[in-house]
Design brief:
Helices cover 29% and strands 22% of the residues. It has helices at residues 7-21, 28-49, 51-56, 73-78, 80-83, 91-98, 130-146, 185-195, 204-215, 235-245, 366-369, 399-412, and strands at 112-115, 125-128, 155-158, 177-179, 199-202, 225-228, 249-255, 259-264, 271-273, 278-283, 298-303, 314-316, 318-322, 336-343, 348-351, 357-360, 376-382, 385-391, 420-424, 439-441. The strands form 5 sheets. It has a 9-stranded mixed β-sheet with strand order 4-3-5-6-7-8-9-14-13, with helices on both faces. Strands 19-18-17-20 form a 4-stranded mixed β-sheet.
Length: 448
Amino acid sequence: METVAVDQQSRQVPNIFFEYAQHESWTRQQLMDYQAQALRACRDYAYANSPFYQRFHQGLMDRPLQDLPVLTKSMVMEHFDDLVTDRAIHLSDVQEHMAGADSTKLFLDRYQVTGTSGSTGKIGIFLSDRTEAAIEGSTFVRVQSWGGLTLKDRVALMTALRLAPPTVLKEGQQVPLVLPATLPLDILVQRLNAWQPEVLVGHASICSALANEQRQGRLHIAPRTIFCAGDTLTSDMRQRIEEIWQTKIFNAYGTTEGNALAGECAFHRGLHLFEDYSIVEVVDENNQPLPPGATGGKVLLTVLFRRTQPLIRYELSDLVRTSANERCPCGRPFALIEAIEGRMMEVLYLPTPAGNVQRISPYIFIVVFSKLPIGGWQVVHEPDGLHILLTGAAGELRDEQVREALQQLLAEHDVLVPSIEIHRVSALRQTANGKSPMVISCVPRQAS
């Protein structure tokens, strides 16, 4: 993903952040009233300025949000010119701008352009004007403020997401070390040893790999606070990272399309949904709402502040588990989610003895791998079976031990157990933006 830095945006973020921070002391009813008004304003603007939404929501403009059709990334790209609200914006021109020698400049001197990495196989392009970009930046400032970030902290930022470092708060503060998430692990270790960060920000998979480097004695840092976002933070990853550095992780849920959607407070009872910025619907594969405590098949996202490119009930393939807890002890009015369990692309579909296909969540593998003396793991589904990648595996760990445990686990889920091969590697496979998914399926669902 590529993005740009805008000086004016940086100046706007503090004011917008403090404006939104006032919402944290509201009652639940005040928050819901605000959300309803913001949703109405978002929809009214889209209906007045987007030919696509005029057609897409025809006859439904006064219906509740849950009655509206689902918007996919493919639809966004197919109807790009009609969906945006500025008639001067054309997809071909945006693509030419992104391919230019200096794509850090604003498109049409007004719009920040962000392109997804295409980790789901579909490229997405999203535009934000200066005000929208400033609001996006303030979502991450909220995450950082809850984690106790100070202006003088030495921050190391290792991510492809727009987890904006806190330089937007005040001038003259500590400039963060920004490292591409795709750098080789040994280079990351070298740079971090030299920098000695007090705050670590990165994908969960990268922080987990670095924790193993610390355990092996190659990395020597002592971060006070760790922020994770961008991929799945499992319970065993969290435990290992927190034990090695003796500090708490502040997990966040962010996307290219909506920026920070949720974050943990100091009580760590789940992730607070930023319901004043966006509406997150956790639904099943048929877009039906789910009860508290259930894991959804997808997420439908409505970004309340988007005007240039409205996203109303936009489909995300994230597997989010809702929380049965109504309120957090911190007193904030935001609803909670328990965890982000991965993405639909990480789900395996394996045949059953009855001839059906069984969905296998990436989370079931934690049962096996959390008990093994390893630094990291990854399951890759190829046409010839499952390939298990292990990093930092102890010498006494036998391949057959891992294989038998996985065979037993899969058999308990009533599937035909495929061939399983164990590979001891120095690094896990990464996506284009530096993430290391728990599961990578290279087998189409129908072929399974």
